[in-house]
Amino acid sequence: MARIVAGVGTSHTPAIGAAVDNGKAGQPYWQPLFKGYEPAKEWLAKTRPDVLIIVYNDHVNAFDFKMIPTFALGCAEEFPIADEGWGPRPVPVVKGYPELAGHLVQSLVLDEFDMTIVNEMPVDHGLTVPLTLLCGSPPHWPCRVIPLAVNVVQYPAPTGRRCYHLGQAIRRAVESWQEDLKVVVFGTGGMSHQIQGPRAGLTNPAFDKAFLDDLSRDPERLTRIAPLEYMREAGAEAIELVMWLLMRGALGPKVAEVYRFYHVPASSTAVGNIILECR
Amino acid sequence: MADDNYDDIPGTWIFDAQRARAGYHLNQFLYTLMKEENRKAFLADERAYLAGFKLTEAQREAVLKREWNRLLELGAVVYALAKLAFTDGRSYQYMASQMTGVSENEYVEMMLRGGRSPDGWRSKSERERH
User: Fold this and answer.
1) Is the ipTM of this complex over 0.90?
2) Is A165 labeled as catalytic in the residue annotation?
3) Cα A147 from Cα A96, distance rounded (Å)
4) Which residues of chain A have pLDDT under 50?
5) Please, what's the largest Cα pairwise distance for chain A?
6) Are B122 and A264 in contact (CB < 8 Å)?
7) Which of A103, A125, A165, A263 is catalytic?
8) Model confidence over B93-124: pLDDT tens digits?
9) How far apart are CA A256 and CA A143, in angstroms?
């Protein structure tokens, strides 16, 4: 049977990808951030998952405004890298897992989560920056990836509680797949940040620390954070943290935190990284 | 029903259904700037390029003048707006600095000092008192 063994929370700030792509990762601005991700990279290499389910959001790259799916599951063989306005990132194409993705859709819809099925989709920094942070710059990504795109661009995003419940349903779906597969779930985006308007640049390390603490101690408390509270306390774009709750829901009731890293800033973002193993 | 009064957050334009409706053509224009040939065509003759989209006069002027906050107010979503900054060869931090009324260097420095504290920015009334 397939099983979810762990979850990773990580920011997906585009400037991080640009720093790697432009050879700036060793510069004083970026060096502490990449150093902070080294243990997570080693952990992933040692864990050797067969599949990553990456929960992320598209930033008006795959989806324009003709259609805005709330939860979209990538079911393609592969996903090309989006040109977001400065040329596509020079990273490998992302290989999917259509058989397992198809099973997830079927299981989730019957479990009353009405997923949008996506058979063609470029992936943007929301998905590729976490891969770069956790896998470095290999010629091919080390495992297959199922993208799960969540709308956090047009208000309202799905609530944290809804995301948490979807994560729980994903755990049930993965466990009903016959192949022996090791699956790791990424929840991406955040942490505190605002990138628009006169309030841009807002960060809230106290909010972020409490969020990281309660991913293992009291995730139910986190599911009660209202959309407005994310925006007031942690910046308009901190609503992305609902995607970490989707990841957390997929890990089952008990987890052990095995790594944490926090750093301000990457561009306008407070960056967080956490690894939670299922117990 | 959850507390939904996001208009009370100062210095912020939440991209909700009404703003998305008002900004639909504006955002679809910005979306075309993902392609290199479109970026070139736009920069070669901005007015002519914009004539191909059903923008309001206010939206058109705000694009031409790069009035970033005004564009947010008129329905642009910030991720689409970033494509205009990139088309100009500007960084995201440049655009953010323009929205906050400081130079790019000052903005970068503020972030290096840990960013903007939420104190004084949680609500419009807190902003007035601050």
Assistant:
1) yes
2) no
3) 8
4) none
5) 52
6) no
7) A125
8) 999 999 999 999 999 999 999 999 999 999 99
9) 24
B111 touches chain A (CB under 8 A): yes
Closest alpha carbon to A240 in A148, A133, A160: A160
Residue A96 lies inside a defined structural domain of this protein: yes
- The answer to the question of residue A274 being in a domain is no
The total domain count for chain A is 1
Tell me the angle at which helices A205-217 and A242-249 cross, rounded to the nearest 10 degrees: 10
Q: Is B28 part of the contact surface with chain A (CB cutoff 8 Å)?
A: yes
Domains of chain B: 12-90 (1.10.700.10), 92-130 (no CATH)
Range of A255's domain? 3-264
pLDDT at B124: 93
Task: Choose among A60, A228, A268: nearest Cβ to B93.
Answer: A268
Q: Could you tell me if A14 lies within 8 Å of chain B, comparing CB atoms?
A: yes
A272 within some domain: no
Please check whether residue A277 lies inside any domain of the structure: no
List of chain A residues whose C-beta atoms are within 8 Å of the C-beta of residue B33:
85
Instruction: Name the closest residue on chain B to residue A15, using Cα atoms.
Output: B92
Report the CATH number at residue A185: 3.40.830.10
